[in-house]
Amino acid sequence: MNFLTILIIIFAAFHTGANETSKIVNILDCGALPDGHTDNTKAFSVFFDTIIAGRRKGYIPAGHYLVTSTLEWDLSLVPGLIIEGDGPASTKIEIISSSNHGWLFTSDKNTAAFYWTFRDMAVFGKSKGPLISFGRKGSGCTSAFNTFWLNGLVINNYDNSSTSTVVEMNGVYNSIISASVNGNDLNDALRLTCAQFNQFTGSYSNAHVGIRMLGSYTFANVFSAIDIEVVDIAIQIDDTAIGGSNSFVGGTFITNNEGSAQKCFVKDESSTRMGHNTFINPVVGPGRPVYCGSRSIEFISTRGVELPASFSYTDVPPPSGKLLINPIPSKLQIMFGGGNVTGVTINGKEFPTSGGQWILQPNDSFIIYYVVAPIWSCRPF
Ligand SMILES: *[C@@H]1O[C@H](CO)[C@@H](O)[C@H](O)[C@H]1NC(C)=O
Ligand SMILES: *[C@@H]1O[C@H](CO)[C@@H](O)[C@H](O)[C@H]1NC(C)=O
Ligand SMILES: *[C@@H]1O[C@H](CO)[C@@H](O)[C@H](O)[C@H]1NC(C)=O
Ligand SMILES: *[C@@H]1O[C@H](CO)[C@@H](O)[C@H](O)[C@H]1NC(C)=O
Fold it and tell me: Atom 5, ligand 3: which residue's CA is nearest?
């Protein structure tokens, strides 16, 4: 390698570096003044327009940026944008907006906005809600965000009008969402419409509802190690949600909002359209969880518990006509066949049957009637 080749390589390296640097849009170059007083609405508008037009990366350095009106950006057709700050303790954006939205990121070209990253900053303020929306409300499931990443975000909406929301997502797929989202007594921390195949973690607290599903299909998401505290209702699944097959793995769901009328761990108004919203080993409280409707909810933290010794019917059927109560906080599966069974009674209701499978909920009562004892099995389910 001769000297000239080395020079060219060094020159090329610097050159690439210079191009990489010039791809980053710094909000301070867009006229922002992060002193906590100056209105930076215009600067943010220029910032996002520049990033979107140039398909570039945006950087919001440490500072307190005040923004006073609604801003809206369409991210369709510009994949791969990255907006980042210096961390939620340093980059702070305060939105004081009297209209319904603080910030609204849309995908209005009826296509998904792909591969977007939004990270490392705090966004707080007062907005009738949502403070931040990803996807336009009512846009259905087609105008969506696909494969996007929210990380290192702290988002707080202090507005306390009854309709307010902190973060709303309308059409989010295949994404990873990690944030600390806080409201106050009257609003919902996170509202989901059309959220599918996402992984959520973080905290959704200090609100009326922690996470609420509504509007359309929200299914096959995993909510792992979610921290929901100081709420009236931890999880609400509206009848409009068509919410099903969501998994809540670990996490805490604490309904200790002071002065609240309702304390529901889960408020489930969904019809039985999908079901299988499953909680695995949740921490709930205070006291025993209150289920406000449970049509689509299952718990498997107690799966596999032993039947108490006093419940001696594991492999032999109880005497015909004897009342049996499911003693465990888990479903019980009863199967029987053969012999001469004439029927069963579950919670006082009679079913003529000669065999089959029956699932008992906790505390359900069960009586089997037979002339000749059947082959019988009874297990936690
Ligand atoms: C870097 O920028 C120079 C001019 O500023 C341009 O000629 C070159 O093509 C750019 N390289 C890349 C990889 O974008
Ligand atoms: C809303 O907050 C204001 C102060 O921020 C307080 O004075 C008011 O009582 C609150 N309203 C409700 C309904 O909580
Ligand atoms: C079951 O018992 C009833 C009552 O004794 C009897 O009428 C019926 O024939 C029996 N059925 C079978 C399949 O043995
Ligand atoms: C089952 O009954 C017991 C005793 O009445 C009660 O303490 C418990 O809360 C009930 N469990 C459920 C899940 O309803």
Answer: 371
Q: Counting every residue, how long is the chain?
A: 381
Q: What pLDDT score does 14 carry?
A: 47
Region 60-307: CATH code: 2.160.20
What's the pTM? 0.70
Q: Cα-flanking dihedrals φ and ψ of residue 86, to 5°?
A: -100, 15
Token couple for 57: 């990366």
Mean pLDDT of 255-264: 65
Q: Count of CB atoms within 10 A of residue 232's CB?
A: 22
DSSP-assigned letters across all residues of 89-121: TTEEEEEEESSS-SEEEE-TTSSPEES-EEEEE
Quickly count: other Cβ atoms within 10 Å of residue 173's Cβ.
Answer: 19
Task: Pick the most confident of 91-105, 151-165, 188-202, 329-343.
Answer: 188-202
Which is the closest atom of ligand 3 to the Cα of 354?
13
Which residue spans of the chain are classified as CATH 2.160.20? 60-307
